[in-house]
């Protein structure tokens, strides 16, 4: 049964402390709002938090047991999602876990390995054998060379013609092949504090959701990991961008600094101003891929500081065209990128067009965002889940 409580405090940080104290670090924020208090000069923050029987999917954790029975609608949905995922895993283990299948598992480690230098006639096979797989990829929006590479890889597996005609089995294998081609980096917090204060700088085109993503990360790091978080804004061109970040900072009780120059940026990040346990989230101006040089002095300055662990991540919208994604990555790569964040998965019903980009990206995916709710709609990227979304559509 999900335990649900409502908490009220002077600011978001105050409320989050109360949530953690009563419900622990596994609590999930279900909603938040501000409320005008009678006789008070400022509004209070009201948060509804819950403690589910299992870890919610957005935490990126593997459930450790069956969820408790509950009539709560959200818990029921979570239970169904976990059951479906468990069923998929068990099915996969049954098909691929025994010794008789070991060679097949090795054979499909890499699509590139299977197709590079392969004899076209040897792996072609009867065209009708690939009709089911081809149809699955077409409906998912996976086309072009990426589609052909997957079909070649599929033909290289020692399946019988009857097995190739089984949509469920073929879909399961395609999902595995797709997942093998997607690189992920894990959470930003999966690191040693010995590297120094963690500076996470989000760069990317205009309108991809950088500021909202920073708010989600900040809230999650504060609530789930009790981190000391600071926000820095480098976007001095748009007043609205700074105001939005200040609003998030005020709600969460986090300091917000503005750095209009590289020198000011380094001053804020000085060795005497930050500690190795700190997390500093940096928002930047939305810019075209031809303007990336403006960020270079800021990033170079931070990278030169031994007390800082700098993570520059490129934020891209899943709804963008494949060519646009590739162009943006190519132009932002000189900024010493360490990861990608894929946003707005909820704004597209077809993620298949993203697969060619992800399968060839030289940097891994760290997080994905799936809606507007802060901090709920963000999760650590997982290749299996991305593969499910790519082939089955985002739900």
TrEMBL record:
InterPro entries recorded: AAA+_ATPase, FlhF__GTPase_dom, P-loop_NTPase, SRP54_GTPase_dom
Topological type in the membrane: Peripheral membrane protein
Task: Write out the ranges of the annotated region (Disordered).
Answer: 51-75
Q: Name one GO biological process term.
A: SRP-dependent cotranslational protein targeting to membrane
Q: One MF term in GO for this entry?
A: signal recognition particle binding
- Key words of the record: Bacterial flagellum biogenesis, Bacterial flagellum protein export, Cell membrane, GTP-binding, Membrane, Nucleotide-binding, Protein transport, Transport
Report whether rRNA processing shows up as a keyword of the record: no
User: What domain of life?
Assistant: Bacteria
Q: Which coarse location class describes where this protein primarily resides?
A: membrane
Record bears the keyword Oxidoreductase:
no
Q: Which residues form the SRP54-type proteins GTP-binding domain?
A: 197-392
Q: Name one Pfam family in it.
A: SRP54
**GO CC terms on record?**
plasma membrane
**Residues in domain AAA+ ATPase?**
196-346
Question: In which compartments does the protein localize?
Answer: Cell membrane
Return the similarity comment: Belongs to the GTP-binding SRP family.
Query: What role is this protein assigned?
Result: Necessary for flagellar biosynthesis. May be involved in translocation of the flagellum.
Q: What is this protein called?
A: Flagellar biosynthesis protein FlhF
Q: Which organism is it from?
A: Leptospirillum ferriphilum
């Amino acid at each position: 049964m999900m335990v649900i409580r409502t908490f009220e405090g002077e600011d978001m940080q105050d409320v989050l402390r109360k949530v953690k104290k009563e419900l622990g670090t596994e609590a999930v924020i279900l909603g938040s709002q501000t409320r005008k208090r009678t006789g008070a000069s400022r509004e209070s923050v009201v948060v509804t938090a819950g403690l589910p029987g299992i870890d919610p999917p957005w935490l990126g954790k593997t459930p450790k047991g069956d969820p408790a029975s509950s009539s709560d609608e959200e818990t029921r949905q979570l239970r169904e999602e976990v059951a479906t995922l468990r069923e998929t895993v068990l099915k996969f283990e049954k098909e691929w876990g025994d010794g008789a299948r070991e060679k097949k598992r090795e054979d499909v480690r890499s699509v590139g390995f299977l197709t590079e230098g392969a004899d076209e006639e040897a792996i072609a096979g009867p065209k009708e054998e690939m009709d089911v797989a081809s149809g699955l990829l077409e409906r998912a929006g996976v086309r072009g060379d990426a589609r052909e590479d997957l079909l070649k890889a599929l033909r290289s597996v020692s399946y019988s013609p009857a097995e190739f005609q089984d949509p469920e089995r073929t879909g399961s294998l395609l999902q595995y092949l797709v997942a093998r081609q997607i690189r992920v980096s894990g959470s930003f917090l999966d690191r040693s504090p010995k590297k120094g204060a963690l500076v996470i700088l989000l760069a990317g085109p205009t309108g991809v959701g950088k500021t909202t993503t920073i708010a989600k990360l900040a809230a999650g790091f504060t609530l789930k990991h009790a981190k000391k978080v600071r926000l820095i804004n480098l976007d001095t061109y748009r007043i609205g961008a700074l105001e939005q970040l200040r609003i998030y900072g005020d709600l969460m009780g986090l300091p917000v600094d503005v750095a209009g120059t590289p020198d000011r940026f380094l001053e804020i990040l000085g060795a005497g101003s930050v500690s190795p346990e700190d997390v500093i989230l940096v928002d930047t101006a939305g810019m075209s891929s031809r303007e990336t040089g403006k960020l270079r002095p800021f990033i170079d300055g931070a990278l030169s500081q031994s007390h800082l662990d700098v993570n520059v991540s490129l934020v891209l919208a899943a709804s963008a065209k494949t060519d646009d994604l590739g162009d943006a990555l190519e132009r932002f790569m000189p900024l010493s990128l360490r990861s990608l964040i894929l946003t707005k998965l909820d704004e597209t019903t077809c993620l298949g067009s993203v697969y060619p980009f992800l399968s060839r990206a030289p940097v891994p995916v760290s997080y994905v965002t799936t809606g507007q709710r802060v901090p709920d709609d963000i999760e650590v990227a997982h290749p299996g889940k991305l593969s499910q979304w790519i082939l089955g559509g985002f739900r």
